[in-house]
Inverse folding.
């Protein structure tokens, strides 16, 4: 039977309609299928698609995977979002802080050698160094956390939002909602949370390593000959560790996209899930994607433990070399210089560990900035330069739509 609009209307008893092909027949078959198993399952038997992190990178992801560590353009992009005045002030305060915190060791040696005479003079300058170090440390924190983070966070978030709002419909057809949501959640969390701390601590550790290396060389003149070899070893170590850690961070970012997609799809279809009793099925899918998203994060901690072990062995070898040179070549150093060298070896351990660890955090967090930069540069815009006509306030004068030479298709353009 057809209604006024020409649509088919099913009429008859329930038993009669079950024997005919139609909505009632399909519904009863679905319910019968759901009761076959103890656990309610959806009518569709297709398993959830494999998470993107396990399927491998797409064409747009390869640029992120092949991004060079220490890419100057990404650093410029991030520091430009902070502002060059704040960046210059940050570098200056960190440098002064390093000088003020390292020079007291030399000042103490001069006092014990008799070069600096008088306790009041020694104590007053020592206090000036300590106070200056504290003030510069607080100033660098204030520049980054009170000024830099709000400015860079708001600027990068505005770029993301503007890019998404100007993207064409084909972009949303080809991109999961969880991937877009991941840019505003996980990427922005890295940019606002880990990245600023990585910038400050990496700068401080770099300047402290330079100062510690200089003090170690002061303690034993022959120890300075080992510094180039040490730098080569550290370069090789960070090259291996940083490349691996950066890829782990990228996989960590990508592995969360299917989880966010599942969140959104579950919320949108919550009424349907409850109506058909599919809660257990979707809970199982959520747990599976949650476990998958945590795998790269766990591996990150594993390689960090490996780095700590290698650094501890390296610093132990340096201490042995310092003492060995001091014992075998007694005329090349003094008791005061040797004390400075041994003390600097201990601090050098912490500084090198902080430098590599937080430089890795900085580089991996910059991956979020690189993703934002590539996303903003490569995503097509719906508005075109020639579409600059602004209608008058009286528009439209009259209503009406006219189509001329119009063609439409469902395309698969890549954005």
């Amino acid at each position: 039977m057809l209604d006024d609009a020409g649509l088919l209307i099913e009429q008859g008893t329930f038993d009669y309609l079950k024997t005919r092909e139609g909505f009632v027949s399909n519904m009863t078959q679905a319910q019968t299928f759901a009761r076959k198993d103890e656990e309610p399952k959806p009518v569709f038997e297709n398993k959830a698609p494999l998470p993107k992190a396990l399927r491998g990178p797409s064409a747009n992801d390869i640029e992120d995977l092949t991004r060079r560590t220490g890419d100057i353009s990404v650093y410029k992009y991030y520091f430009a979002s902070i502002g060059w005045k704040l960046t210059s002030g940050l570098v200056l305060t960190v440098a002064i802080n390093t000088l003020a915190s390292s020079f007291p060791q030399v000042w103490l040696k001069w006092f014990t050698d008799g070069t600096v005479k008088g306790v009041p003079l020694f104590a007053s300058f020592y206090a000036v160094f300590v106070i200056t170090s504290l003030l510069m440390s607080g100033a660098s924190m204030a520049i980054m956390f009170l000024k830099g983070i709000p400015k860079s966070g708001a600027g990068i978030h505005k770029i993301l939002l503007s890019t998404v709002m100007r993207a064409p419909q084909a972009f949303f057809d080809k991109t999961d909602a969880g991937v877009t949501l991941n840019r505003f959640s996980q990427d922005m969390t890295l940019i606002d949370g880990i990245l600023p701390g990585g910038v400050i601590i990496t700068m401080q550790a770099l300047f402290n390593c330079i100062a510690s290396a200089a003090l170690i060389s002061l303690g034993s003149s022959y120890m300075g000959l080992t510094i180039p070899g040490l730098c080569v070893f550290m370069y090789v170590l960070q090259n291996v560790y940083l490349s691996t850690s950066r890829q782990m961070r990228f996989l960590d970012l990508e592995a969360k996209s299917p989880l966010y997609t599942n969140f959104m799809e579950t919320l949108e279809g919550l009424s349907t899930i409850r109506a058909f009793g599919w809660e257990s099925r979707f809970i199982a899918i959520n747990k599976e994607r949650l476990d998958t998203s945590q795998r790269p994060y766990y591996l990150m901690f594993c390689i960090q433990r490996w780095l700590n072990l290698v650094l501890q062995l390296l610093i132990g070898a340096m201490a042995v070399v310092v003492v060995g040179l001091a014992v075998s070549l007694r005329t090349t150093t003094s008791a005061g210089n040797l004390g400075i060298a041994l003390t600097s070896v201990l601090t050098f351990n912490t500084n090198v560990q902080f430098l590599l660890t937080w430089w890795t955090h900085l580089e991996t967090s910059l991956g979020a900035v690189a993703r934002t930069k590539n996303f903003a540069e490569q995503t097509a815009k719906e508005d075109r330069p020639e579409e600059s006509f602004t209608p008058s306030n009286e528009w439209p004068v009259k209503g009406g739509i006219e189509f001329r030479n119009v063609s439409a298709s469902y395309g698969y353009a890549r954005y």
